[in-house]
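Summary: Need help interpreting a holo structure output

Steps to reproduce:
1. Submit the protein chain below together with the SMILES for zinc ion.
2. Request a joint structure prediction with the ligand placed.
3. Inspect the structure token block that comes back.

Expected: a single structure record containing both the chain and the bound molecule.
Actual: see attached output.

Input attached:
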Amino acid sequence: MRPDREAEYVEPADLFCGRCTAMTEFATAPSTFTVSMIGTSLLGWGSRCRECGSDGRVLWLIFGIPLIPLGRYRVISAGGGEYYGRKRLAGRRISALTAALQPAPDVPAELLADKTYRQADELWLSAEPRDALRLFEEMRASHEATLAADDPAVIHLRLRGAQALLATHHKHAALALFEHVATAAALRLGLDHPVTRWAAEAAGRAAESWTSPKQLASLLAAAADPTAEIPTDQDVRAVTHQIRLHASAARAHLRIGKVKEALWYVDNALGASYELHGPDHPDTAVLRHTLHTVAEAANPQDKNLQAEIHACQQTWQPK
Ligand SMILES: [Zn+2]
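--- attached output ---
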């Protein structure tokens, strides 16, 4: 596929927010045309999404009057009667991504007893993900200030944050956070714990749902530069986001067999995490685990790559 073809493919898919993506499937954009009152037309049916601005429409075959409904879509106008569209899933079918928006298991009791948490959950359930995200983020920050980064309450709040990010058009940030929490939960709670399994599933769904593995790697590569160090003297939230984005780019490159690129990204992420959190922080341990995954995927015959990985592992050891 030529690079410009890929760009064409991914742009319309990325216009829709996570919630609208979850309700729909990729489809060729509905084309509308009528000649002498014969043709197809998109007619109103559903509400406008406040997140991505897509509208619910039904594609009708027109024969003087709307005659046969051809499918339900969520559409965003591209101007000039053209639309980006995703087809509504029929009946009660749900998409793979829907799983990532379902309730996460094992909510810690202290959170259920918390008024702000219940308020955030109500906002989430009443389809106000942006307001829910703000509250979940506030709670996460205050909990991270007093608890370990891999405390079950912090893990849960990060998962809620990732869901809200997914629903508010921050798909890359959501994916990076789901992946991070999946590894943190595996290291802290064990691979078979329901929270670990749920987070890993959500991360997998988020990675697969809206684009091809190759396209995902190049999208993340555009967002994270592996040749420049992540500046750690900026806002902590921005640094943390860059670190997770680099780790996510490492995993995306690993999935398409680009081990050397994956190593660059995770090396960068580890360097920044060392500086920001220190070597023994649970978030640094997550990145070290990602480095371990990179090492396992590397060709043992490639001596240069093996030497680079070894040097990286030596540099970023726990103290
Ligand atoms: Zn939407």
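--- end attachment ---

Reviewer comment: The longest strand covers residues 65-79. The chain is about 60% helix and 15% strand.
Status: needs-info
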